[in-house]
Amino acid sequence: MRITVLAGGVGGARFALGLREAAPDDQISIVANVGDDMWLAGVKVCPDLDSLLYALAGVGDTERGWGRAGESERVSAELTAYGVGWPWFTLGDLDLGTHLARAAMLRDGATLTEATARLSARWPLGVTLLPVTDDEVPTHVVTDEGTMHFEEWWVRTRAQLPARRFVQHGVERSRVSAQARAAIAQADVILLAPSNPVVSIGTIVGIPGVRDALETAAAPIVGVSPIIGGRVVRGMAATCLATIGVEADAAAVAAHYGARSRGGLLDGWLAAEEDAAGLPRLRELGIRAEARPLLLTPGGPAAQVAADALALAARVSSPAG
């Protein structure tokens, strides 16, 4: 079976680990958000791709939830001493090795998809990592104090500076990569990971060609809620949702995605047991919604969440389901 996942960083990585365990014999492709990407101190940094890469390779820092395990930060300290880069955005030395390698590949003419494949080849990931586009579409945040890159708003201000809107710079000139489009078109199941609905999944779907590919895909599309009991599991997605006028609520996020039968994205929606009360209204919207335990803790629980998402996809696609 061919499974394609649309994913952001940390939540996407945890879900991907569970999916790899739940479906070890299947062909898994992960179409990743690149809106957080940037050039910093001369290197190309791809936060979501790298979170996925490191987690699947087993070399990620599980305590911090980002970056490499066993890091040192001597190079970043030197850069700060020279006044280069962002002093509040620390790149570990091992992490910088990845960014330097990627930057070298890109400068030699490789696409981001090609560079990602070369970086991924170092480890047996068990999945194919695909940036949604080879074009640069950095997410900018418009605030009352000016416009800034998403990572500055997210890391330096801790999302405390009110955001007026999110803008993907250059998105109108971008195109979904041929590899990402093929992964969607050829999938037997398409899953939306429990990633930030606005700046991760929203950015992926906003790339020209992605929504068309999803609308015409033969595979069922099932989303996994990033909200449990009315609370965002990780990160500051509630702030992003508030910016676009969506409540931090599992059913509200599913309604925001919409039913594919009515021009939206979803055929099915997997929510947490704590949010079961809000699901009947989704069925009225044309989304088959079910409630299961959703905590993505390592090992069995994360694999069970992935297995439940696949089972829901099977029921969605079955006439008798």
Concise overview:
This protein is an alpha/beta fold.
Q: Which stretches of 5+ consecutive residues score pLDDT under 50?
A: none
- Report the C-alpha radius of gyration, rounded: 19 Å
| Helix-strand sequence | EHEEEHHHHEEEHEHEHHEEEHHEHEH
Mean pLDDT: 95
Proper CATH architecture of one domain: 3-Layer(aba) Sandwich
Can you identify the CATH superfamily of one domain?
A: CofD-like domains
* Largest sheet: spatial strand order: 5-2-1-9-10-13-14
Overall geometry comes to globular
What's the main sheet like? 7 strands, parallel
Strand content: 15-25%
Look at the helices and sheets and give the structural class.
alpha/beta
Q: Determine the number of helices (DSSP H or I, runs of at least 4 residues).
A: 13
Could you estimate the helical fraction of the residues in percent?
Answer: 25-40%
Q: At the first level of CATH, what is the class of one domain?
A: Alpha Beta
What is the strand tally?
Answer: 14
Record keyword descriptors for this entry.
Rossmann fold; 13 helices; 38% helix; alpha/beta; three-stranded antiparallel sheet; 321 residues; globular
